[in-house]
Amino acid sequence: MKILPFLIIVLTSLNSFGQIPEFDSNVNESVEDQSYLFKKFYPEYEFILGYTQKSFWFKRQEYSVLTFNGTDWELKKWSYELKEEKPKKSKMKSRILVKEKVINLLNYFESKGFYSLNQDLLNWSKKDLGNGTMLHQSIMDGVFETFEFISSSGHRIYSAHEPVQKQEFVYIEQREIFLDCLDKFLDLIDETK
């Protein structure tokens, strides 16, 4: 009868694995060691999807984080102040999400090819004028829209600096996918308020 608990654990693990997208890493160990999201949530959760806006002007860093613990999907609102390269005055609020809504979002990301975007193209800001010259757009300061995905299969970070303005300047298909998926993610987050 000792086989039954083992079988339940294996089946639960296989079921949860089927819900989690697989992707390759686009970060190295050095970047991973600097990830506050990675340090805070991994390996406690099987899957972590974090979104934040980063700017020189923000005193507090605020994340919306989808986590999966093998059973439940949760939305965590996590914020902190960075002092001496360490998160301080950390605050966290959590809420269980409807599994189907999260799975629909992740399936949408997969259908768009989101897990294999090219980081460099997200920040492309050169336009060919057709006469042998390139026009380069430069935005000082601004906001970086940043996604971070962490699971046992990999760790990916996408960071797009002022993607809406850059997309208006020069259309890039990869950036369009990023913005579309960002809208879908924000819709899910807004639904849970």
Report what the structure shows.
The chain has 193 residues and is α+β, with helices and mostly antiparallel strands. The chain has one domain: Mago nashi protein (2-Layer Sandwich). Helices cover 37% and strands 32% of the residues. The protein is built from seven helices and eight strands. Strands 4-3-2-1-7-8 form a six-stranded antiparallel beta sheet. Strands 5-6 form a two-stranded antiparallel ribbon. A hairpin with a 4-residue loop joins strand 2 and strand 3. Helix 4 packs antiparallel against helix 7. The chain is globular and about 55 Å long. The N terminus is likely disordered.
CATH T-level topology: Mago nashi protein
Distance between the termini: 45 Å
Shape: globular
CATH class: Alpha Beta
Structural class: alpha+beta
Q: Tell me the major beta sheet.
A: 6 strands, antiparallel
State the order of secondary-structure elements, H for helix, E for strand: HHHEEEEHHEEEEHH
Provide the residue-averaged pLDDT.
Answer: 89
Major beta sheet, strand line-up: 4-3-2-1-7-8
Strand content: 25-35%
Using only CA atoms, what is the Rg?
19 Å
Count of separate DSSP helical elements: 7
State the CATH architecture: 2-Layer Sandwich
* Unreliable runs: 1-17
Number of strands: 8
| Helix percent band | 25-40%
In total, how many domains does the architecture comprise?
A: 1
